Amino acid sequence: MEFRKLEDYDMDYQVNYIHPKIKISCYSGKLFKTEAAFDEHLLVWLLSGETKIVQADESFVFGPGSTFLIPRHQLATIINYPKDGWPHKAVAMHLSADQLRIFYNNKVKTNTSLSHKIRTFNHHPLLESCLASLNPYFELKETFPENLAALKITEAIAILHAIDKDIDGVLGNFEDPHKIDLAAFMEKNFMFNMPLQKFGYLSGRSLTTFKRDFFQLYQLTPQRWLTQKRLELAHYQLSQKNRKPIEVYLETGFENLSHFSHAFKKKYGYTPKDLTMASKSTANS
Predict the structure, then answer these.
(1) pLDDT tens digits, one per residue of 10-22
(2) Is the sign of the CA dihedral 132, 121, 90, 201 positive or negative?
(3) Which fold has domain 6-171?
(4) Which of the residues 74, 124, 238, 255 has an alpha carbon 20 to 30 A from that of 172?
């Protein structure tokens, strides 16, 4: 596949699917942010650029050549950056539940303690070869055969099974989320900008039950509570960690810098930039 630098791209974002479960994406803007809680495991091979993944208790930074698995149903902020003059370019493969069930014959002892962790596979030749073999197919004009796509996904699953002794407890977990402690879940995951329905599902509740349980717990609507918690975290990051506003808004659940600045000033009476400047002045005095 032809590999071009940023100046050769006319569009900020391009994506090419050879199959609903297999794609290559290319982004050449300043950054691309998304909040994720995928319904399927996502296997990613990063060709160029940089990816930062922020979870509630851990962060990861991946560079060119990295291969990693984002488990299903795990809340995360994903920030993709072009870097060193190259666009952010990645091959991604969804590992469907149907094919995983066939591979494992529905008989796997799951390990939920492992299921939330991002898994990395540093330049493993088998996995890299499998994903690299997809490159020529992205240039095809005709439809990618369904049976061939299934074979490539099964090949990737088989390689993961062979190289990671713990992967079966992740890929073989077909259970839906159970009803869990809502306070613990929300205190851990409030910084992810997800629809309330997704928060409900991941905590084992319908949207109606989630809203009811939430109000009984906090005497606030979820929207008001989430905004309050995100602003408090942002204030802490700016004042105590000396982070930049653009870094903070990306990781505290706000849609964009303008929205963040407006909400922050409404609550505290000054902007994030004002707080950053005041903190720097205090540190230098």
Answers:
(1) 348 889 999 999 9
(2) positive
(3) Jelly Rolls (2.60.120)
(4) 124
Q: Burial code of 256-275, b = ≥16 C-beta within 10 A, e = fewer? A: eeeebbebbeeeeeeebebb
Q: What gap in Å lies between CA 5 and CA 239, rounded to an integer?
A: 38
Calpha distance 169→104 (Å, rounded) = 11
Nearest-angstrom CA–CA distance, 158 and 178: 28
**The pLDDT of residue 110 is above 70:** no
Report d(CA 15, CA 80) in Å as an integer. Answer: 14
What's the rounded Cα separation, in Å, for the pair 272 and 270?
A: 7
Residue 50's DSSP bridge partners are 81
Burial call 20-48: b when 16+ CB within 10 Å, e when fewer: ebbbbbbbbeeebbebbbeebbbbbbbbb
pTM for this predicted structure: 0.85
> If residue 204 lies in a helix (H) or strand (E), which one and from where to where?
none
Model confidence pLDDT, tens digit, residues 152-171: 999 999 999 999 989 998 99
Single-letter amino acid code for the residue at 236 = Y
Q: Where are the alpha helices (DSSP H) in 203-269?
A: 207-218, 222-240, 245-250, 257-268
Residue-wise pLDDT for 236-283, tens only, equals 999 999 899 999 999 999 988 999 999 999 999 999 999 988 877 666
Residue pair 58/46 in contact (Cβ under 8 Å)? The answer is no
State how far the Cα of 69 lies from the Cα of 59, in Å rounded to an integer.
14
Structurally, at CATH architecture level, domain 182-284 sits in Orthogonal Bundle (1.10)
Picking from 166, 210, 206, 216, the residue whose alpha carbon sits closest to that of residue 189 is 210
